[in-house]
Structure formats: C-alpha cells, structure tokens
Write a structure and sequence with these properties.
Belongs to the GPN-loop GTPase family. This protein is α/β, with parallel strands linked by helices and 397 residues long. The chain is built from 17 helices and seven strands. The longest helix has 52 residues, at 277-328. The radius of gyration is 26 Å and the shape is globular. Residues 1-15, 234-241, 330-362 and 372-397 have low confidence and may be disordered. It binds guanosine-5'-triphosphate.
C-alpha cells in the first residue's frame, strides 16, 4: 500500500488522466453517504471531483452533482408514460440517458483537460459516479454496460462495491455478498475495491480475515452451523443443525472464491464518521494503476480487433466488387472502379449481400441497438432533449 503522502489517484505518473470511481452497492449499504464522504474529502484536499448521479429515483442527494440524470430524465414521468413499475422506470430512464453518453463524455473530456482560455481552472482528477441501489438494473442492463464501457474507454475506471458490514457478519450473508461482487467483477471486467462500510457499527477485520485465511472462514462456518444459523429442520442426525447442505455449499464456495479474492482491494470505512477514506483513495490509486497495466491494453486490443474486423469487411466487399467486374470482362471497369472508390461509404455499407458474415452482423447489431434506442427515445425526445440541453448549458457556463 502507498503511504498517505502518496500522490492522489490520477496523478501517479499520469498527471492529466483522471480516475473514474463508480459506486455500486445494494440499497441501504450506504452508497450515497459514502459518495458524500469521498466528495467532501476531495473538496477538503482542494481537489474537487466531477460528480455524476445515475440514480433517477433518488429523492434527496446530500451532495451536488455536476451531471444529474434527474435533470435530463423525469423518472416519474417515464413510469407514467411507459406504464412501468419502479425498476422498469429506472431502467428506461438509464436507457434514455445512455443515448446522451457522447455529450457526457464530451463534457468530461473538456473538464479533465487544461483550458487554454482559462488557465486558472484546474483540470479535475476524479470522476465520482453514484448508481441506483437496484444493482442488477445498472450492472446487467445494456444501458449500464454502454455507460460503463464508454467511461472505461476514456478514463481509468474503478468499481467501488459498497458492502453493509453489520449485515454481512454471518458466513452465509458474507458469501452472498461476495458472490454478488464476483458477478459484478466478471460482468464489468473492471478493477474492483470492496468497501466494507459502517465500520463504526461492526469492525470489518473479520471479513478481511475470512478472505485471506481459509481456516478462519471454516471455523466461523462451523460456529454458524452449530448454532443453527442456516435454519433447516431436516438434519435428523444433526439434532436441529440443518441438513448440512448450506455448510458444504459455503465451504465449496469459499474455495472457489479464493482466486477471486486475490483480484480485489479491501478497505473498511465508516461513511458516517469519515474513517478509512485515505485508505480507500490509496486503493483507488492501486486499482487505477492496475487498470492502466492490465485492463487498458486489453481494451485497446479489443478496439484494434474491432477496427481490423471492419477493415477486413471493407476489403472483402471491395474484393467482391473487383471480382465481379473482372468476371464481366468489361474493359471499362477501371473508370467504374474509380467511381466506386469515390462512393466508398455506399459500397461498404451495402447490407444485402448474399454472404454477410459475423463481422457485418456485429455492425448491424450495433446499428439495430442504436435504432432501438432512437425508437425508445422518440416519443420522449422533446422532454429529454430540452432538459438535457438545459443542463448542458448550465454545465458549460
Ligand atoms: N452507522 C452507520 N450508518 C451508515 C453509514 N453509512 C450509511 N449509513 C446509514 O445507512 C442508511 C443508508 O444509507 P444511504 O447512504 O442512504 O444508502 P444507499 O446505499 O445510498 O441507499 P439507496 O439510496 O437506497 O440505494 C442511512 O440511514 C445512513 O445514515 C456508516 O458508515 N455507519
């Protein structure tokens, strides 16, 4: 771990590259309180962050957001117009917002680079993102993926998974939380910090021990089994200690998750008291380095692969045209080829070819997604666009 005098995240060897911290956690885990605490911490360090709220249903946010989804999408109106329940309303609001991601990235890029016209304005080093408590709506939705991938393609991005420590003190609730974290890690493919919150109520050292010492978890598991913490009446021979199924499942899971634990940073904080925040930012710095070292090359590789696929698709189309022309044996093909080259876009986007391959399918999928988003926002575009334009205007002032 770095010392407390270490440079702030985003400054270590990369003075102009900020770090995006996306806070994810179950409802009531203390996400919003945590966001408020880290926001205040950075303000105290005279390094104010750029704050984005992606929770359209939050009634009261105790911190000011630079970009707030509620300014561009009216969650209640979305529920009414589309006849949706609360989760559907959040999902549709995120979908509407995701159509504006380019504008959001434009603003972020502007605020993270020095402004020649206003040299006194310091570029920001941290982007803090608050997300809805309905984790699955954000992490497992197409719009959540678009928002996260877009962010990660522009800035080192770290997930902070907030855990309610007092509610994770039994081996079964702890394991449920770890499995959830594991699924988020594999879905987002971004470096993750486990933030054990509410350390003022329950010291999270037990969790750190369970993650590093297999025997310690086994001992706790036996204790939970002995006091029938898993419930279940079917354990005849066990005399009321359950069937043993839960114990053996948790035992197996703890072995499986050993490797997963190695990829995580773990910090204990109290968002209420403000303890552990320095340690959290040290972990952010570590994970940002990890992002640059391990994730960024992978992202760039994928981007290059996509570009290469597109190039191959174009070449294939061109090759087909050339073959078609030479088979026709028409000596006037050369001037026609010049015409085709000039009309390059039309040629590349020809979609009614007989042997469309996976690459073209990919492109069409993307276009289809775009079209679906446009269709989804069409009836609401006036409201969303007008409001978004208003907040973009206030942001740029
Ligand atoms: N004791 C203690 N309470 C905390 C801490 N952090 C948050 N809380 C309390 O936990 C409750 C939930 O906190 P929030 O910050 O609203 O949680 P959230 O995850 O944003 O909840 P949603 O908005 O429903 O997603 C509140 O009553 C907070 O005061 C902490 O570190 N210690």
């Amino acid at each position: 771990m770095a010392s407390t005098s270490a440079p702030l995240p985003g400054q270590s060897g990369h003075p102009s590259q900020p770090v995006a911290v996306v806070c994810v956690g179950m409802a009531g885990s203390g996400k919003t309180t945590f966001m408020q605490q880290i926001n205040a911490h950075l303000h105290r360090k005279k390094d104010p962050p750029y704050v984005i709220n992606l929770d359209p249903a939050v009634l009261h946010a105790p911190f000011e957001s630079n970009i707030d989804i509620r300014d561009s999408v009216n969650y209640k109106e979305v529920m009414k117009q589309y006849n949706l329940g609360p989760n559907g309303g959040i999902l549709t609001s995120l979908n509407l917002f995701a159509t504006k991601i380019d504008q959001v990235l434009g603003l972020l890029e502007k605020r993270t680079t020095p402004d020649p016209e206003n040299p006194a304005r310091k570029p920001i080093n941290h982007i803090l993102v608050d997300t809805p408590g309905q984790i699955e709506v954000f992490v497992w939705s197409a719009s959540g993926t678009i928002l996260l991938e877009s962010l990660a393609s522009s800035f080192p991005t770290v997930i902070a998974y907030i855990i309610d420590t007092p509610r994770s003190s039994s081996t079964s609730t702890f394991m449920s939380n770890m499995l959830y974290a594991c699924s988020i890690l594999y879905k987002t493919k971004l470096p993750m910090i486990l933030v054990f919150n509410k350390a003022d109520v329950k010291d999270p050292s037990f969790a750190k021990e369970w993650m590093t010492d297999y025997d310690a978890f086994q001992t706790a598991l036996s204790q939970d089994e002995n006091r029938n913490a898993f419930g279940g009446q079917e354990g005849g021979e066990g005399g009321g200690v359950g069937s043993g199924y839960m114990g053996s499942l948790l035992n197996s899971m703890s072995m499986v998750l050993e490797e997963f634990y190695e990829h995580l940073s773990v910090v204990g904080v109290s968002s209420l008291m403000g303890t552990g925040i320095d340690e959290f930012f040290e972990a952010v710095q570590e994970k940002a380095e990890e992002f640059r070292r391990d994730y960024q090359p992978e992202l760039e590789k994928k981007r290059e692969e996509r570009e290469e696929s597109k190039k191959k698709a174009r070449e294939k189309e061109l090759d087909k045209m050339m073959k078609g022309m030479s088979m026709a044996g028409d000596s006037s093909a050369a001037p026609a080829l010049t015409d085709i080259k000039e009309d390059d876009n039309g040629l590349v986007s020809a979609s009614d070819s007989d042997d469309d391959d996976d690459i073209n399918d990919d492109e069409m999928d993307r276009e289809g997604l775009q079209a679906r988003y446009e269709a989804a926002t069409a009836s609401d575009s006036t409201m969303a666009d007008a409001s978004f334009a208003k907040y973009l205007y206030t942001q740029q002032k």
